[in-house]
Amino acid sequence: MSSLILIADDEGEIVEILDAYMRREGFRTVAASDGQQAVDLHASLKPDLVLLDVRMPVRDGWDVLGELRRRGETPVIMVTALDQDLDKLQALRIGADDYIIKPFKPIEVVARVHAILRRSVGAADAKVLRVGPLEVQLENYLAAIFTPDGKRRLDLTLTEFRILAHMARIPLRVFTRIEIMEACFPNQDVLERTIDSHVSHLRRKLESAGAVGLLTNVRGVGYRLEPDA
């Protein structure tokens, strides 16, 4: 069955354009005209990706994005007229996968949807994740760095492995401390500085194995893996 795209926007013309282009690409679509409807449709239909506006009635896009991130990792592309750097930073901080500014070229939106779905589906199905010199074997709880001198296995704690595997599923994406906390410490009361401590230990182990610059800090937002470091 083709992927289901939830289009959340209160501008009817925008919805019609996105709906037409998505369907032409073979996607199924469903539309929400306000934030609460978007949240409800996401809960009932479990879409594969959400195209989300910020300025919507009832619940705005930031509130919706936060709710979707608390529920899981459904890919979300913000499609909005807000074009300031602070708005983009806010989207990344909450957990958006991409950010497209209106007015947009519909074909560009389609291309971004295809790219993110390929990436997220591939990561979900993979038993072995590879990011640059890093290899993560999910079933065996093993991680290693490939260097010119050979393969160097990482001696990680379970928590460090979980954080690394979580980030390796979507390279280049910035993960906030709260996202890492919710994904790797479910139902646990963990402080943000605890995340910083685990990530710091993990970074030192990666660098000792030869992967300098692989795990980076994005100031004021969180952490990401840089495949080309």
Automatic annotation (TrEMBL):
Example of a GO biological process term: regulation of DNA-templated transcription
Domain of life: Bacteria
Molecular function in Gene Ontology: phosphorelay response regulator activity; transcription cis-regulatory region binding
DNA-binding region location: 126-227
Residues modified as 4-aspartylphosphate: D53
Listed GO CC annotations: cytosol; protein-DNA complex
Record's keyword terms, sorted: DNA-binding, Phosphoprotein
Start and end residues of each Response regulatory domain: 4-117
Domain OmpR/PhoB-type: 126-227
The protein's name in its UniProt record: Two-component system response regulator AdeR
Native source organism of the sequence: Brevundimonas mediterranea
Phylogenetic placement of the source organism: Bacteria, Pseudomonadati, Pseudomonadota, Alphaproteobacteria, Caulobacterales
